Amino acid sequence: MIAKGMVGKKLVGDNLQIASEAKRRKLENPNTINATLGTLVNEDNNFYTFKTVDKILRSLENDHIYNYSSTDGGEEFKNAVMNWVFREYLDEIITNFKYQVVATAGGTGAVSNAVFSSLDSNQTLILPNIHWGPYNNIALASNLNVEKFNMFDGNHFNINGFQELIYKVAEKEGKVTFILNDPCHNPTGYTLSDDELLSIIDIINSMENIPFSIIYDIAYFDYPVTRTNVREKFKLLTKLKNNVVIHIAFSCSKTFSIYGLRTGAQIILSKDQNIVEDFYNSSVYLSRTRWSNIPRAGIQLLIKLYNDKKLYAKFLQEQQKARNILTMRAKLFIEEAKTNDLKIYPYHGGFFITIACSDGKKLFEALKKDDIYVIPLQRAIRISISSLPIACINRLVSKVKEAKKIID
Q1: What is the residue range of 28's domain?
Q2: Which helix (H) or strand (E) element contains residue 312?
Q3: Per-residue pLDDT tens digits for 256-302
Q4: Would 56 be classed as within a structural domain?
Q5: Strands 244-251 and 212-217: what pairing?
Q6: Are residues 330 and 188 in the same domain?
Q7: How many folded domains does the chain comprise?
Q8: Same-domain check for residues 255 and 332
Q9: Do 146 and 179 touch, CB atoms closer than 8 A?
Q10: pLDDT tens-digit readout, 351-373
C-alpha cells in the first residue's frame, strides 16, 4: 500500500533517537555523559539560554506567539535575516546578486527545500564522505542518488577529489548540486580557508555551461573558534558566474539557542533574476505543503532583535561568552586527545569534534557500556563539545582511548 519510493525508509540510529536514549539513561544514572546533540549547555549541565533572547520571547504579545506567520516569513523577517547573516558585507552581496529569502523550519528545512528544488528523481547529490547524517535522508526521501568524495587530503580540504567528482557528475547529468557545510563543519568543526573556497569557485567557474546549485549550510557559522572571518568570506561568492545559484541555509535554532522553535531561512543568491524567482517560488510552494509556516515567535525574535540596537549589542556580548565556553572546551579536548594519542579531524569552530577510528558503530556501542553517548559515524565518532562540560572531558577521552584499544 505504501508508495514504492518510501518502501524500506525507516529512521534508525538517528541523532535525535540516540540523544533521547541518552536522556533516559541519565535519569537512571546521573553520571551519564550525553555528548550527542548540537545544543549548548552550561558547565552545570543545564540548558544554555541567552538572557536577551529570553527577554524578547517573554515580552511578545499574543498575536506574535499564537497567530499564523506568512509562509515566506514576511519582509521584516527577510530584511532582518539578510542583515544578520551578511552584516557589514550586505551592500556588496546585494550589489552583486539578485536575492530572495524564505522562512524555513530550521536550517534543515532550508537544505531540504534546496535539494528537492534542484534535482529530479535519480539525479545525484554530491557530499563529502564526512557529513551530517540527515543529508543522506533528505536525498533518499527525494529518491536521489548520493555520491561522495573524500573530504580531507591530509589536514586540508581535498580539492582534487572534489573536482574529479564534480566533473564526473557534470558529464553524466549535465548539472551539479552539492552541499557545502562551512564554516564550522558538522561533524568535524573544519572551516575552509579563503584559498580553498577560491579553488572551489575556480572549478565551478571553469564549467560555465553547467548549471550549479550550491547548498551552503552555515548552521554553526556564528560559533567560530579560529578562522573567524566567517562573514568576510561571503565576499568571495561574488566571483561566481551566472550559471550558479547559492542556497544559504541559516539556522536561527543554533545562532539563538532556540532549537525547538524550528526557525531558519533559505537565502537564494544568483546573478540571474529568473533563477532566483524560480527557486523562490518553488521553496515557498514546498514550505506551504510541508510545514505551512514556521512559528511566529521565532520570526518576531529576529525582527525585534534587529530593530533594537541595545538588545542587539547585548546579545552579541552574550554570544561571545558562549564562544568563549566552546573555545575553552575545545582547547582542553584537543590537548587531552593529543595526550591520549587520539586522532581528531582539524577543528576551527562549531559544536562538534570528530575522533577517527576503525569502526564508529563498534566504538559507540563500547562507550555506551560506560554510559557515554556520542554519535557514531562510519569510521569515526562525533563528540558534541557544546553539551560536554569541562569536568567530563577527561573521563570521556580516557574511555574513548580504552575502547579504541579493544576495537581497533
Answers
A1: 4-50+312-405
A2: helix 309-339
A3: 999 999 999 999 999 999 999 999 999 999 999 999 999 999 999 99
A4: no
A5: parallel
A6: no
A7: 2
A8: no
A9: no
A10: 999 999 999 999 999 999 999 99
